[in-house]
Write a structure and sequence with these properties.
With about 350 residues, the chain is of the alpha/beta class. About 40% of the residues lie in helices and about 25% in strands. A hairpin with a 5-residue loop joins β13 (about 270-275) and β14. Bound molecules: iron/sulfur cluster.
Length: about 350
Amino acid sequence: MKNPVHNIYIHVPFCMSKCNYCAFFSRACSNPDWGEYADGICREIMAWSEKLGRISVPTIFFGGGTPSLMPVMVFDKIMTQIHNYFDVVQNAEITLESNPGTLDFGRLRDFMVGGVNRLSVGCQSLSDKKLQFLGRRHGVTDAIKLLDLAQNLGLRTSADFIYGLPGDSADSVRDLCEQINKLGLQHCSLYELTLEPDTPFGKMNLAMPDNDTMAQMYTTIGDTLNLPRYEVSNYATTGNECRHNQNIWDGEAYIGLGRGAAGRVNIDGQWYEQLGANGRFEQISPATRATEMLITGMRTMRGCRLTDDVKNVIDMDWVKSNSDLVQMDETRIRATNQGLLILDDVLVKLVK
Ligand code: SF4
């Protein structure tokens, strides 16, 4: 029996410098050993092919870190290895995460020749003052330049933003959304700033907006942005959703390549939790996997797919008596607008 499709996430753990809020697995390194990095990823691809066989791959996502720092030759080497060992489906979505200031016309075009068809740009803010506060190395002009370049080259383009900084309000977030609307994007992500320990921000005593203000900002985004919300933090025109993330949120299998990259692998019908190449690799039960699917699926507006395993972990009596919070049809269960506001509580009740 052929194993099911697996999406591929490739972690590129290098950045020019660390941003003040960042707890991602990445390190500041201006001159990494790219040869060693590429060889490591290629070995991982070969090892997975031994476990999984020649699986089909619908999406590949280079995330980080700052993947756009990668020499195109390194990207090409990794892509060649993937094509050698797996069946990358026709029109597969291939995303590169990028930071403004790291790609010019020539390099971006070369990445496209190598297969990149979607660019995600870490803009984070449309205020130079806020970018500086966040510890970003680029300015607003660099971000707009990269977005324009990508759009002019015909790439599917997304931009990431962070809101909920000290001093932010519903009004400042409305301004941000109105400016985003002028960028003509098909996709963007807006993440709330969270203070992580072991980051510069985590050690500062920042006066963060209170929970009510945060909730107002979230509602303002939904009311102002001209892209529909399709997941708690993601917005896109129909058909321009990030397929990679959607597949994963919908419970498809995925492999994480590179140190610190997580995956959920399915071998001969058995699910495994995976971390990096030599990190964790443990069987997980169908109930655990179904609960994970519920947690990610319920964050999407289309809701969670109702597989038999998912149905088995849902408290159906609770669902029937809480139609103001969750709605179910033949194929999916989703949170209502009211349910989305208290999603964590809903999930606790929803799972048996
Ligand atoms: S560029 Fe991204 S991954 Fe790198 S330090 Fe900044 S936030 Fe973290």
